[in-house]
Amino acid sequence: MPYNDLRKGRVSIPGQIYFLTAVTWGRTPWFEDFQLGRQVAGVFHTLALAHPGLSLAWVVMPDHVHWLVQLPEGLSLDQLMQRFKGRSARALNAARASRGPVWQPGFHDRALRKDEDLLSAARYLIANPLRAGLVPRIADHPLWDAIWIQPPVDRTSVRRGG
């Protein structure tokens, strides 16, 4: 599908929740390399700090990312993805000491309807590594985050009284 066809009918509504997907150039599985995946995770965190309330959940797959966002005022979907792709491409190219495209043009977006369960959408998003057969448990996939889920407590470092 040509890039311009992806943009037809795209509407950016502040406060609306969107499910976004971006795919690497040529579906290259760069994020099988954990260090490269961390570069993308860092960009998600940077954008979340710059726009509080923006990032609800995300997951980095070997050749694509999924991101659940609540679009802030003053930022369109195109602007948001341009920032994400630009920053992450610069970080990835620096980490790989290379140049060239990282992401395919365009992205997929789907606005969540008001009657859709937001938590279910986030669970679906972060379960992608399970459905893809990458890991047996989501806790085994290190490249995801969601605002509703706290990291597990490392019980080995907890001292017991007594």
UniProtKB/TrEMBL annotation:
GO terms for biological process: DNA transposition. GO terms for molecular function: sequence-specific DNA binding; transposase activity. Residues 13-128 form the Transposase IS200-like domain. It comes from the Bacteria. PANTHER family: REP-ASSOCIATED TYROSINE TRANSPOSASE (PTHR36966:SF1). This is Transposase. The lineage of its organism: Bacteria, Pseudomonadati, Pseudomonadota, Betaproteobacteria, Rhodocyclales.
